[in-house]
Design brief:
Helix content: 25-40%
Strand order of the largest sheet: 5-4-3-6-7-8-9
Number of strands: 9
Oligomer: single chain
Shape: globular
Length: about 220
């Protein structure tokens, strides 16, 4: 498959405006804002829809999935408090946009996608863009125990509960960010592993994600 990628002053200017909008909405992490400002979101859209790329909206990408709203991506990324070199598990690669943000933040990213068509696209597009992650196709609700433990885990789909399997794959001091609720609406939840047996949970704002599908989900 051939891709036509263009990043001119118009797209760069649109990203700058998007960053300002996110700042006004309460995103304070300057590293996250800088990452949003670097990643060309229009690369994840058909050229016909480039005009939509820098609006603060989610957008369909096929197979019943969406590229997340930039605010949502920034919100989750900010909660992770990523440090350079952190080992991060992303559950739900989707378009790969969130993956790129994590990489721009300096993370070593393991990302898993259930939909084979999306997986096949991201393993072509992201390396073409110069982004290097470890890509996997499978049931992300079970995590990736063979590569655990992780400093951070981010789930980009709505789960009915926090899977125990994911908690077990966090390092002590590690952070899990996951939307939890029903199939229409979820609360963003941050879980911090305090010790081998103790976890602190913080319930935050309401969002809407596509459902997380798998053995430990819907």
């Amino acid at each position: 498959m051939a891709y036509k990628f263009i990043d001119n002053y118009r797209e760069r200017g649109a990203r700058k405006k998007l960053v300002q909008k996110l700042r006004e909405r309460g995103i304070e992490d300057e590293n996250v804002l800088a990452a949003i400002g670097k990643v060309p979101r229009h690369y994840f859209f058909d050229e016909t829809f480039w005009v939509q790329a820098y609006k603060d909206i989610a957008f369909p990408i096929g197979d019943g999935q969406t590229i997340s709203q930039p605010y949502t991506v920034a919100y989750q990324s900010q909660l992770l408090h990523i440090k350079k070199g952190d080992k991060v598990l992303e559950i739900g690669t989707g378009s790969g946009y969130q993956t790129c943000i994590l990489l721009e933040l300096g993370a070593k990213v393991y990302t898993i996608e259930r939909q084979e068509s999306l997986y096949k696209r991201t393993i072509q597009v992201l390396p073409y863009m110069g982004y290097d992650a470890e890509f996997f196709c499978g049931d992300g609700s079970k995590g990736m125990p063979e590569n655990a433990p992780f400093d951070r885990i981010i789930v980009t789909a709505g789960a009915p509960f926090v899977p125990d399997l994911l908690l077990k794959q966090l390092k002590v001091g590690g952070i899990l960010v996951i939307p939890v609720g029903d199939e229409k609406e979820q609360k963003m939840v941050t879980v911090i592993r305090v010790s081998e047996t103790e976890f602190d949970k913080i319930v935050l704002d309401t969002f809407r994600f596509v459902p997380l599908v798998g053995d430990q989900a819907w």
